[in-house]
């Protein structure tokens, strides 16, 4: 399967919105918008992302839009994030997409956060060179409670 990144097109946004409303995926990601079904808030967030210094990308697998990946935040504190449609989980797409994003955005350090029980995401981050640096607790909108999270960093 060929995995590539490209700039985000307006036509990608309805696909992202649908993907980010999969209840199982939202629960696993844990940290997200207060109401994933709020399309106006989704559109506002993506307009802000696209107008900022973030580096948002669309993930394509064999030409199909299967998710998004981005680097965002202030220099020295920038974080990575990614989302892959649940139908494509377990195929190495997130790892390939994150590697491509890290090749494009070469500044370091970069950081990431994941729910402590999100083994798949933690595995992706570690395969891409991120190392666990801290444990924290944060309020997970998708779960309606504080949960354990892992903070990771990529230094080189």
Topology (elements, then pairings):
Elements: E1 3-7, H1 13-19, H2 23-29, H3 39-51, E2 55-61, E3 64-72, E4 79-84, H4 93-104, E5 110-115, H5 119-127, E6 131-140, E7 145-154
Antiparallel strand pairs: 1-2, 2-3, 3-4, 5-7, 6-7
Written description of the protein model:
There is one protein chain. This protein is an alpha+beta fold. Helices cover 31% and strands 34% of the residues. The chain has five helices and seven strands. Strands 1-2-3-4 form a four-stranded antiparallel β-sheet, with helices on both faces. The protein is globular, with a radius of gyration of 15 Å.
Structural class: alpha+beta
Principal-axes geometry comes out as globular
Beta-strand residue percentage: 25-35%
- Strands across the major sheet, in which order? 1-2-3-4
Intertermini distance: 28 Å
Output mean pLDDT.
Answer: 97
Keywords:
single chain, four-stranded antiparallel β-sheet, 156 residues, 5 helices, globular
Describe the structure concisely for a colleague.
The protein is α+β, with helices and mostly antiparallel strands and 156 residues long.
